[in-house]
Design brief:
The protein is an alpha/beta fold. It has 3 domains: about 5-40 and about 95-150 and about 275-340, FAD/NAD(P)-binding domain; about 160-270, 3-Layer(bba) Sandwich (FAD/NAD(P)-binding domain), CATH 3.50.50.60; about 370-475, Enolase-like, domain 1 (2-Layer Sandwich), CATH 3.30.390.30. The protein has helices at about 15-25, 40-45, 50-65, 80-90, 100-105, 160, 165-170, 185-195, 215-230, 320-340, 355-360, 375-380, 400-405, 435-445, 450, 465-475, and strands at about 5-10, 30-35, 110-115, 115-120, 125, 135-145, 150, 180, 200-205, 235, 240-245, 250-255, 260-265, 265-270, 275, 305-310, 360-365, 370-375, 385-395, 410-415, 420-430. Strands 1, 2, 3, 4, 5, 6 and 16 form a 7-stranded mixed sheet that branches. Strands 17-18-21-20-19 form a 5-stranded antiparallel sheet, sandwiched between helices. It has a 4-stranded parallel sheet with strand order 10-9-8-14. Its cofactor is FAD. Belongs to the class-I pyridine nucleotide-disulfide oxidoreductase family. This is Oxidoreductase.
């Protein structure tokens, strides 16, 4: 091992959360080192958010265009799959991270490429791909931001079947003829939408009662209906018991509970995520390896006043934008503690990621899009709130009808009847993803219903649904 190099902050993991820690601690004048074993930019930039949206945007744009009179006839042909994949490759930088490295260099942080492990209190050991060894010492904080990996269930035959995970699904260089997707999650729904539009015959097999189980039930129902209309097969309440691949390049089959067999050319297992903590030295500081890292409301690990965990790895929320949000707050916390200044840890304070539990937004880029913030009806009721769900058919909004012929969508707001503020909002329909930030502001700001009446939606936009929801609530 080389002699220890000292920094104020050492960040283990260079995805969006890790990058945001680097940005905020450098802005506060702290010296910072970033350790990354793969590509700086992480899962989101190369195998998740960015490539998936590059694949999905042409599919959604074509679907929208086909609903516009005068334009529909001009867009009836297939997508140019090669062009879509090339555009996706461009947005991932062809899986090269020099642009991210250049940015980190520009703010004065230092990148160590290689596998990093905690090496006792306030230290990280790094082994580079060339076999070089470094010890990094942190004066103030070590931040774990190693993210998650896809979980592949231990089914008979799965090892030899070489299934896709989200990485292969977003980086494939050609469309499979037949794609089997196991799972009902966001990954399953979005990749079904993308590859069906790019020419694959898609079959979705969800163990639960519907797709998108973390949203209001109608969201998954509308997305499943649209997938079926596009030609995909969507089956719910089914379990896969075994997988078989015919040789090294042959088709892959799944055996369902009851013995039914389905065959495809590729199999995507969209069956959850696990923390990437199995080999990062947690045992050297008395923490269990391979598990989620518990944190307090400043993202600090209890019992370790120098150790923080941000992003997916702390299991608060597995979403890129929330990991970045946590990192901005944790960066401010680290800077404040380093300077010896008091923390503001009240709800909605500068040093507490309150939105993780009260105003969490998410957008799903299916056709129709599904977007939600805050609590669902079921979650609000389980939490003991006295609530009312207010629903509205978005096709009845003038702006929706002008946006697309045959617009299909639904909106719901969850009203806290005791305080008359919104606890949650869900929109499902074309263009819904661009509407969710207004709902996020209403939920995070706890804007009273009485005040929302004075937030006048522009006519004729889809956002006029806000007025209709309020009218429905008043009755």
């Amino acid at each position: 091992m080389s002699e220890a190099v000292e920094y104020d902050v050492v960040v283990l993991g260079g995805g969006p959360a890790g990058e945001n820690i680097v940005d905020r601690t450098r802005a506060a004048g702290l010296s910072t080192a970033l350790v990354e074993s793969e590509l700086v930019g992480g899962e989101c930039s190369y195998w998740a958010c960015v490539p998936s949206k590059a694949l999905l945007r042409p599919a959604l744009a074509r679907a929208d265009a086909r609903r516009v009179p005068g334009l529909a006839g001009a867009v009836q042909g297939p997508l140019d799959t090669a062009a879509v994949l090339a555009h996706r490759n461009y947005w991932t930088g062809d899986w090269k991270d020099q642009g991210q490295i250049d940015w980190i260099d520009s703010i004065g942080a230092h990148v160590y490429r290689g596998h990093g492990r905690l090496y006792g209190v306030r230290k990280v050991a790094v082994t580079s791909p060339e076999g070089e060894h470094h010890i990094l010492s942190a004066r103030h904080a070590v931040v774990v931001a190693t993210g998650t990996r896809a979980v592949i269930p231990d089914l008979p035959g799965i090892a030899g079947a070489r299934p896709w995970t989200s990485r292969e699904a977003t980086s494939a260089q050609e469309a499979p003829g037949r794609l089997l997707i196991v799972g009902g999650s966001v990954v399953a729904a979005e990749m079904a939408t993308a590859w069906q539009a790019l020419g694959s015959q898609v079959t979705v097999l969800a163990r639960g009662s519907g797709l998108l189980p973390r949203m209001e039930p109608f969201a998954g129902e509308l997305v499943a209906d649209a997938l079926r209309e596009a030609g995909a097969v969507v089956r719910t309440g089914v379990s896969v018991e075994a997988v078989v691949r015919d040789g090294s390049t042959g088709p892959v089959s799944v055996v369902l509970e009851g013995g039914e067999t389905l065959e495809g050319d590729e199999l995507l297992m969209a069956t959850g995520r696990a923390p990437r903590t199995e080999d990062i030295g947690l045992d050297t500081v008395g923490l269990p390896a391979g598990r989620w890292i518990d944190v307090d409301d400043t993202c600090r690990v209890p019992g370790h006043d120098w150790l923080y965990a941000v992003g997916d790895v702390n299991h608060r929320v597995l979403l890129t934008h929330q990991g970045k949000y946590q990192a901005r707050i944790a960066g401010a916390v680290i800077a404040a503690r380093a300077a010896g200044t008091p923390l503001d840890t009240a709800p909605w304070g500068a040093h507490t990621p309150t939105a993780d539990t009260r105003a969490l937004p998410q957008a799903v880029f299916t056709d129709p899009e599904a977007a939600a913030v805050g609590l669902t009806l079921a979650e609000a009721e389980r939490a003991g709130h006295r609530v009312r769900a207010v629903d509205y058919d978005m096709s009845k909004v003038s702006g929706a009808g002008l946006y697309a012929d045959g617009y299909t969508g639904r909106a719901r707001m969850i009203v806290d009847l005791d305080r008359e503020v919104l606890l949650g909002v869900t929109f499902v329909g074309p263009g819904a993803a661009e509407m969710i930030h207004a709902a996020t502001i209403a939920v995070a700001g706890e804007v009273p219903i009485q005040r929302l009446w004075h937030a006048v939606p522009s006519f004729p936009t889809i956002s006029e649904v806000w007025l209709r929801l309020l009218e429905t609530y008043r009755g």
